[in-house]
What does this fold into?
Amino acid sequence: MLNYITWNPDPEIFELGRFSIRWYGLLFALAFVSGYFIIQNIFRYEKIPLKLLDKLATYMIIATVVGARLGHCFFYEPEYYLRNPWEILYIWKGGLASHGAAIAIIIALLIFSRKYNLSLVWILDRIVIVVALAGAFIRTGNLMNSEIFGKPAELPWAFIFLRSDEIPRHPTQIYEALSYLIIFIFLYAVYYYKKGHPKPGLLFGMFMFLVFTARFLIEFLKEPQVSFEQSMALNMGQWLSIPFIIIGLMAVFWPRKKKNIAPEN
It folds into this structure.
């Protein structure tokens, strides 16, 4: 008989009165903090004014939170949230979708690039490096919440999520977190291998293809997140991933003639 991994951590780290610190919130915050310092190093490496960084971080934080929340509400539970629109604001109850965050980030960076007269492709090629790392942090937060787990499995690394049931399951949060961490390392390595001047759109394209292909494949091992997915051959996460995979391939193989030039100081 296999000895499965029993998993039942407390989602809360500590509580002070009515205020509590949760693992998910801490890891979400660490995603932004680590991303900030990595982008800061990239700006210094390319001699970009750091005064732009704080503004860029503000756009990213707002886009990620708003986009991820709206993505969950309208991609996965539109009927409920259209009946109860005020609950869209109840972020603390959970419900964030990476596809919504991806769309909102691209829109926010388009606005940012036009406002500050920067190349959108230049920004995207650098932001995706830290977004991949953020994905690893966030999926680890899902693991600490014992949520978004996989289907039953008879594997030595299967997890029994006691907050749900006593069935051994695929720890799909770990599969995704490790995938995104590897993609982060790969993109960062390519960036420095190209001495800070990758071809325009290359990193963005590789990110879109690799992240959403990983997401598409791992979804086969996940339990459906909402009831309407039960009868679907491909679930909502997979259908939403397909356009991003296509965009990634187009960006990777699109012919390029010029190097990706950084904004002027």
User: Anything to note?
Assistant: The CA atoms of residues 150 and 221 lie 5 Å apart. DSSP finds eight helices and five strands in the chain. Strands lie at 5-7, 12-16, 19-22, 159-161, 168-169. The chain has a mean pLDDT of 89.
